[in-house]
Specification:
By secondary structure, the chain is mainly alpha-helical. It is about 80% helix and about 0% strand.
C-alpha cells in the first residue's frame, strides 16, 4: 500500500480533541508505569538485595540486585521483535494491551514475592524471571505508544503529540520516587523491611488496570485500519523489515546515540556519581536530579512543539551538538559545589529533553506503515540494550581508567557528534504525510 493510496488527509474519520487526548493519556499511563517500576527498583535496590540474596556482604547483594536489573535490558530486543510483530501483523492496540499487562502484573508480583529467608534460592530465581518478563514489555511499550500516538496525529502536530509520550517517562520516575520516599518517611526501618517496601510495587496494579481499560476504548489509527483491510494476507513483517530496511535499523541506532547514552548517563549515572565520587549527600544528589528532570520536562514539550515548526533535523542536530560542545564543561561544573552541580544537571537534562522529544515523530516518519512497529521496536530496543544499558558501566570505567571525573562527557560528546553527522543526511519529513 503506497502513500499515494492511503494518506492521513484522505481519511474520513475526524480527530476530535477529546479523543486524541484519550489516546495520548492511555499511552502515557503505560509508559509512566514502566518508569515507575524503574524508579522503585533503583530506590529499593539495597532493600531488595538484602532480602532476596544470601547476606554475604552488602556490596555482593547490591551487585546481584543490579545484575538482575540489567538482565531486563537483555530481553528488550526480543520484546521488540515480539511486540513489533504483534503491532504490524495483528494490531497496534493489541500490542499496547499485552505490553501493559506484561509490565503491571510482574511489577505487582515483585511486591508479593517470598524472600530468601522464606524460600531460599527460589526467591532470586523468581525475581529474575519477573525482571525478564518486564524486559520483554519494555521492548514494546514505549515504541508501541509512540507509534500509536503519532499515527493518530495530524501532519502539523506529530512532534508535539509524540513528545507527550516522552514526557510520561518523567512522570513515572517522579511518581515512583515520591511514593518510595513517602514509604520510607512514614514507616520505621523494621516496618519497611518487614512489609513496607512491598506496597509501592503492589499498588502499580491500579495503574495497569486503569491503563488497560483506557486502551480498550480507543481505536486503531485509521491509516493502519485501512491498510489492514486492503491486505487480507500479510507477509511476515520482520522478514520484510530485514529484507528491505535493515540499513534503516543501523541508521536509527546511530542517530539515537545521544539518547541511549545520554539518558541513562544523566538519569541513572549522575545521581550515583555525585554521592560516590563527589561526596554529595543523598538528599542533595536527589534534589539536583529531581530539579533536572523538571527542566527536562519543560524542554520535552517545548522541543516537540518546535520540531513541528522548524523541522526534526534542526532540533535534533542542534541538541546533539549541544552535548558535543557542552557535555565536558558541564561535567566539570558538577564538581564545583551544589549550586554549580545543580546548574550543570539542569543544563544537561534540558539538552537531553530537547533531543528526546522529536524522536517519536522522527522514527515513525522513517519507517513505512507495514513494518513500522517491527522496525522501530527492534532498532530502539537494540539501541537501549547496547548503548543505554552499558552507559553507566562505561562511564564508571572511564573515570577509573583516566582518573578524570569528567571523562564520561567525552564518551557522550563523541557519540553525539557521530549521531549529528548521521542526522545531517536524514530526509526531513515533518511536513509530509506518513508513508
Amino acid at each position: 500500500m503506497t502513500a499515494a493510496v492511503i494518506t492521513q488527509e484522505s481519511l474520513s474519520v475526524p480527530h476530535k480533541g477529546s479523543y486524541i487526548r484519550k489516546v495520548i493519556l492511555s499511552c502515557m499511563i503505560g509508559n509512566a508505569l514502566e518508569w515507575y517500576d524503574f524508579a522503585l527498583y533503583g530506590f529499593f535496590a539495597k532493600t531488595i538485595g538484602q532480602l532476596f540474596f544470601p547476606n554475604f556482604s552488602t556490596f555482593a547483594s547490591l551487585m546481584a540486585t543490579f545484575g538482575i536489573f540489567a538482565a531486563g535490558f537483555i530481553m528488550r530486543p526480543l520484546g521488540g521483535v515480539i511486540f513489533g510483530h504483534i503491532g504490524d501483523k495483528i494490531g497496534r492496540k493489541d500490542a499496547l494491551l499485552w505490553s501493559i499487562y506484561l509490565m503491571a502484573i510482574p511489577t505487582a508480583l515483585i511486591g508479593l514475592l517470598p524472600t530468601y529467608a522464606q524460600i531460599g534460592w527460589f526467591a532470586p530465581l523468581l525475581l529474575t524471571l519477573i525482571r525478564l518478563a518486564q524486559g520483554l514489555s519494555m521492548g514494546g511499550e514505549f515504541t508501541g505508544s509512540m507509534i500509536f500516538v503519532v499515527e493518530h496525529a495530524h501532519t502539523g502536530n506529530r512532534g508535539l503529540y509524540g513528545s507527550w509520550v516522552v514526557f510520561s517517562l518523567l512522570v513515572g520516575i517522579l511518581v515512583g520516587s515520591a511514593v518510595a520516599t513517602s514509604t520510607c518517611h512514614f514507616l520505621s526501618q523494621e516496618e519497611l523491611y518487614a512489609w513496607g517496601w512491598r506496597i509501592p510495587f503492589i499498588i502499580s496494579v491500579v495503574g495497569g488496570f486503569v491503563g488497560s481499560i483506557m486502551r480498550r476504548t480507543v481505536d486503531e489509527p485509521e491509516q493502519f485500519k485501512q491498510a489492514k483491510a486492503h491486505h487480507k494476507e500479510h507477509s511476515t513483517p520482520i522478514v520484510a523489515l530485514f529484507k528491505s530496511h535493515s540499513k534503516m535499523i543501523l541508521y536509527v541506532i546511530t542517530i539515537e546515540l545521544s539518547l541511549s547514552i545520554g539518558f541513562y548517563m544523566i538519569v541513572t549515572f549522575i545521581n550515583n556519581y555525585l554521592t560516590a565520587l563527589l561526596n554529595f549527600s543523598m538528599v542533595m544528589s536527589l534534589l539536583t536530579t529531581t530539579v533536572g528532570m523538571f527542566g527536562m520536562g519543560v524542554a520535552i514539550l517545548l522541543s516537540g512543539w518546535l520540531s513541528d515548526k522548524i523541522g526534526r533535523k534542526t532540533v535534533l542536530i542542534s541538541s546533539a551538538l549541544g552535548f558535543t560542545f557542552f557535555a565536558y564543561p558541564l561535567f566539570i561544573a558538577l564538581e564545583g559545589g551544589f549550586t554549580s552541580a545543580l546548574f550543570a544537571q539542569v543544563a544537561l537534562s534540558f539538552i537531553m529533553g530537547s533531543f528526546f522529544a522529536p524522536i517519536p515523530a522522527t522514527l515513525v516518519e522513517l519507517f513505512p506503515l507495514t513494518v513500522r512497529s517491527s522496525g522501530i521496536s527492534i532498532s530502539h530496543s537494540l539501541s537501549m540494550a547496547i548503548f543505554g544499558g552499558s552507559a553507566p558501566l562505561i562511564a564508571t570505567a572511564l573515570i577509573s581508567y583516566t582518573n578524570n571525573n569528567a571523562a564520561p562527557a567525552l564518551y557522550l560528546g563523541g557519540a553525539s557528534l557521530i549521531g549529528a553527522i548521521a542526522l545531517f543526511f536524514m530526509k526531513e519529513r515533518s511536513k509530509e504525510e506518513l508513508q
